[in-house]
TrEMBL record:
Source organism of this protein record: Algoriphagus faecimaris
Molecular function as annotated in GO: fructose 1,6-bisphosphate 1-phosphatase activity; magnesium ion binding
GO terms under cellular component: cytosol
Listed Pfam families: FBPase, FBPase_C
Family label: Belongs to the FBPase class 1 family.
Record keywords, A-Z: Carbohydrate metabolism, Cytoplasm, Hydrolase, Magnesium, Metal-binding
Main subcellular localisation: cytoplasm
Reactions that this protein is recorded to catalyse: beta-D-fructose 1,6-bisphosphate + H2O = beta-D-fructose 6-phosphate + phosphate
Associated pathway: Carbohydrate biosynthesis
Subunit relationships: Homotetramer.
Entries under HAMAP family matching the protein: FBPase_class1 (MF_01855)
BP-aspect Gene Ontology terms: fructose 1,6-bisphosphate metabolic process; fructose 6-phosphate metabolic process; fructose metabolic process; gluconeogenesis; sucrose biosynthetic process
Enzyme class: hydrolase
Annotated protein name in UniProt: Fructose-1,6-bisphosphatase class 1
Length: 348
């Protein structure tokens, strides 16, 4: 029997299609000692749901699944049909995948117990962020965090399984349904981006080892809310304008964050007098992006502490969010700090 060693093609006749997400996950599984493949399977389950949601967002206008659903969610926000569809898709994929015991979703008032006490993981997810942009064909996204449950495998889920600070995340990521559909995630060993090739039904590695520029020339904030800003935010935005930075605000957190991550920039959603904790949610928006930001060498803070160190006290709690390039976040913090009310201590 004749045996020859495989020789990789040198002719260039067939270009390499690159590394699929599946193959990358398997290659990286060795980053986890004693990895038994459950987290890898969970990431694949999320990618599957993302492919389905991608198909449905791309054809929303044709399949009469655009527009309002006719109900409001626990946030009091009007649900879009695609919000509901995306929530169903991700919940179904995570339930069928068998690796998850509980889900926190922007679209669900309570923690969803998947009745799978052998599941090692808890997922916090915003199934479709920026959904008000769906009908006008602007980029939208999915944001997810993955935690290991704290209570013993096999026992019923408890509050401590769900109310974990962002530092406890084992993985986090987002899907950006934009001019191309991308999945960007971290498991604590750097940040990698994958672009979806619909004709093959695969995500391919397109942005290996993403590192955020330490500084940037883009700031993202809703300037329509200027009247409600604190003096510190007014000071910082005034600084951005004096430096003639570019104002870019899409109104989709994932899209604004992704652009700033790649090009350098800062996204700010401050608290206001009426909503001191701002609009964005800690568990399924801020924590995931903060984990990615820090893994890419950027920063994420609520103005007082790292986002990742905030101990959650309620499922849908909100947090101010200042996230992006290291030096830009530092400058914002410096200006916020110098306007903090310094109450003189009177020694009686
Ligand atoms: P505003 C979308 O509703 C979202 O949660 C983020 O995606 C986005 O950055 C922000 O709210 C926009 O909020 O108040 O500026 O319209």
């Amino acid at each position: 029997m004749k045996i020859l060693p495989y020789q990789p093609d040198q002719s260039g006749m067939a270009y390499s299609v690159g590394t699929t997400l599946d193959r990358f996950i398997k290659l990286k599984q060795s980053d986890f000692p004693f990895a038994s493949g459950e987290l890898s399977q969970l990431l694949r389950d999320i990618a599957l749901a993302a492919k389905i949601v991608n198909r449905e967002t791309n054809r929303a206008g044709l399949a009469n699944i655009g527009g309002a659903f006719g109900q409001t969610n626990v946030q009091g926000e009007e649900q879009q049909k695609l919000d509901v569809i995306a929530n169903i898709r991700f919940m179904r994929a995570l339930s069928k995948g068998g690796e998850v015991c509980a889900i926190v979703s922007e679209e669900e008032d309570a923690v969803i117990d998947l009745q799978n006490n052998s599941g090692k993981y808890v997922v916090a997810i915003d199934p479709l962020d920026g959904s008000s942009n769906i009908d006008v064909n602007i980029s939208i996204g999915t944001i997810f965090s993955i935690y290991r449950r704290k209570t013993p495998i096999g026992s019923p889920i408890q509050e401590e399984d769900v109310m974990q600070p962002g530092t406890e995340q084992v993985a986090a990521g987002y899907v950006l349904y934009g001019s191309s559909t991308m999945l960007v995630y971290t498991t604590g060993f750097g940040v990698n981006g994958f672009t979806y090739e619909a004709s093959l039904g695969e995500f391919f590695l397109s942005h290996p080892n993403i590192e955020a520029p330490k500084n940037g020339k883009i700031y993202s904030i809703n300037e329509g809310l200027e009247k409600s800003w604190t003096d510190g935010i007014k000071d910082y935005i005034g600084f951005c304008k004096s430096e003639q930075l570019s104002a870019r605000y899409i109104g989709s957190l994932v899209a604004d964050f992704h652009r700033n991550l790649l090009k350098g920039g800062i996204y700010l959603y401050p608290g206001t007098q009426s909503n001191p904790n701002g609009k964005l949610r800690l568990l399924y928006e801020a924590n995931a992006l903060a984990f990615i930001a820090e893994q890419a060498g950027a920063k994420a803070t609520d103005g007082n502490q790292r986002i990742l160190e905030i101990q959650p006290t309620s499922l849908h709690q909100r947090t101010p969010l200042y996230i992006g390039s290291d030096k830009m976040v530092d400058e914002a913090l410096r200006r916020i700090a110098r306007h903090k009310q310094i109450i003189p201590t009177i020694n009686l």
